[in-house]
Amino acid sequence: MNSDRPRRLDRDGDNTLAYHKSSGISPGVVFLSGYQSAMSGAKAVALESACKAQSRAYVRFDYSGHGESDGDFEDCVVSDWLADAVAVLDQCTNGPQVLVGSSMGGWIALLTALARPDRVAGLVGIAPAPDFTEDLLLAKATDAERETFERDGVWRKPYGDGDDEFIVTKALIEDGRQHLMLGDPIPIPGPVRLIHGTDDDVVPWETSQRLMEALTSTDVKFTPVEGAGHRMSEPHELDIVLATVEGLCRSLEPQTSDANPAR
């Protein structure tokens, strides 16, 4: 079997999710990517290599409508991606897990932790974007975008250097309102680590500050990365991400004299 070919997780109907999994010690790590992003991104792949080097269990996957998974992106909403994440946690992992969420993945990770508190041992948010559908997409839409949105139920705008489009559907905004978090205390008791670039022009670093204040956990640490943008994929930025994830995982390992004797 080609090790580069993803495994497939059956979902509703004929749809499947693509994922990569490596076995190892607990707690395992699950990476949740961002909006219109995929498990082939730099952070997901770098974290996989780091976990393998530490003999730590690891899973990365594509949400429905993303990357190598089935589904039409424009038909999917936050509820679908949350259900995907819970299914991956339930069916592709064993024991306690640390969820590492990038951008929208940070929001999905928080929602997953609330849905499966007995399985999620800790969280790492990389430029986490809870409530982004309301606070970032809708709030920052131009009058023209709002008009298009109301008329067509979707707006599209080019981004990057190629032919890529940033797509926002009315269904996404409406569904997102079922999952808004920052207006109330977030009852997650376990440790949370937040990493955010101070020059992030997509998700302002103040979002992490708001999240830190909303979490009920007594073990929340926020690391601002001076001069970093949204992607957090430069070598020195990845070093911070990898060190943060491994530090949290090690703090959650069983503290016995014979645990992980190779360490």
Describe, in plain words, how this protein is organized in 3D.
This protein has an eight-stranded mixed beta sheet, sandwiched between helices. It has a domain of 179 residues: Alpha/Beta hydrolase fold, catalytic domain (Rossmann fold, 3-Layer(aba) Sandwich). The model has no long low-confidence stretch (mean pLDDT 93). The chain contains eight helices and ten strands. Helix 1 crosses helix 8 and helix 2 crosses helix 3. 34% of the residues lie in helices and 23% in strands. It is of the alpha/beta class and 263 residues long.
Largest sheet features: 8 strands, mixed
Number of strands: 10
Relevant CATH superfamily of the domain at 21-130 and 184-252: Alpha/Beta hydrolase fold, catalytic domain
Give me the strand/helix succession: EEEHEHEHEHHEEHEHEH
- C-alpha Rg (nearest Å): 18 Å
Identify the strand order in the major beta sheet.
Answer: 1-2-4-3-5-6-9-10
CATH fold assignment of the domain at 21-130 and 184-252 = Rossmann fold
Mean pLDDT: 93
Gross morphology is: globular
Uncertain regions: pLDDT < 50 for 5+ in a row?
none
Question: Please, how many helices?
Answer: 8
In whole angstroms, the N-to-C terminal distance is: 32 Å
What is the CATH architecture assignment of the domain at 21-130 and 184-252? 3-Layer(aba) Sandwich
Labels describing this entry:
single chain; 263 residues; alpha/beta; Rossmann fold; two-stranded antiparallel ribbon; 34% helix; globular
